[in-house]
Amino acid sequence: MHVRTRVAGAITAALLLSAATPTAFADDTATASPGDIVTQSPTEFHPLPGQWTNTKAWHVTYRSTTAKGGPNVVSGTVIVPNDGRTGPRPVVTYAVGTVGLGDSCAPSANFPYGTAVEATLINQVVQKGWAVAVTDYEGLGTPGDHTYTVGRAEGTAMLDAARAAERLGIPGVDANSPVGIMGYSQGGQASSWAAELHDSYAPELKVKGTATGGVPADLMKVAASNDGGLGSGLIFMAAAGQDAAFPELKLDSYLNPAGKALVDYFKNNCVAIDTTVGSFKHITDLTVKNPLQQPDWQARLGESRLGTHRPDAPVYLYHGTIDELIPYAVGQQLRSDWCAKGANVEWHALPLLGHIGGVTVGGVPAANWLADRFADKPSQSNCQ
Fold it and tell me: Is residue 165 within 8 Å of residue 93, measured between CB atoms?
């Protein structure tokens, strides 16, 4: 109860802080740039409850771009080792896997209390001496609904988190810092989108490589695989996220009363309870008409499909062979699509590992691969 109370307090404070953001943003839109910091305040980073780390951390809100190309403000956390180092330091922009749709699920709300799901993995990255920027994604920790699974909005939020880290004034972290991109699951979608968007959206970032895993590269195939299964709740969370980005999709008009109640519940809770409540439901159980069979929905979901553009920096791509949430074949197809476009892809199948096993086993080699990119070692593409 005490942890929940503190988290609620932190969220309230963060929302009060960001409440002034839209006004400030509107006043200087003409001169603002993506990655510019709107607010910053000291925070703490604890991988587990009560676990101390020798780090400095800042909660930030920063300017970014919506999936439709408009301006928005996103929150996140920048963490740096408190090691006295003043020389050049790499920056890793990190995106977490699915945490939920409620603001209390945001990584920045949970880092101070050691309750963020991937904080232990993030700590392994921080302990390499790198600055790490963790985006909360659009609408998760800031006013508005979270645009869950909307690939373009996730990718811009990641790239702008790196820009924000470079503009914080951290010694050794600036526009010349080498940048790595990292994420798994939803974070894999985000990091893969960041990799594809880099050359057009943020070409000034010195991106050395992207480590990405468990990637839901094709949302229609992922939805078909999860309909009626363990991950069926994720379909409706994703539908809510797409509707948040594209209100013209009118999700509510497709839902029956049970579907409306479930989506409302998801918007106020986090993934651990969401996946339990939402499991083993079919789309037809909760709708009056299946939105995924409609051309407008198919078009918007298609806009989040990965593999249509070549990342301009090397990629480390990994996927569990028995992934129960994101089909292994979806990961294989992404690898094929990128390779066909001439990308430098180092592909790793993780034998006999499911979705959770993939992130726990694959995270350390992925970070070590980024270390080699920061050391300017050549990447070993295995596209052939």
Answer: yes
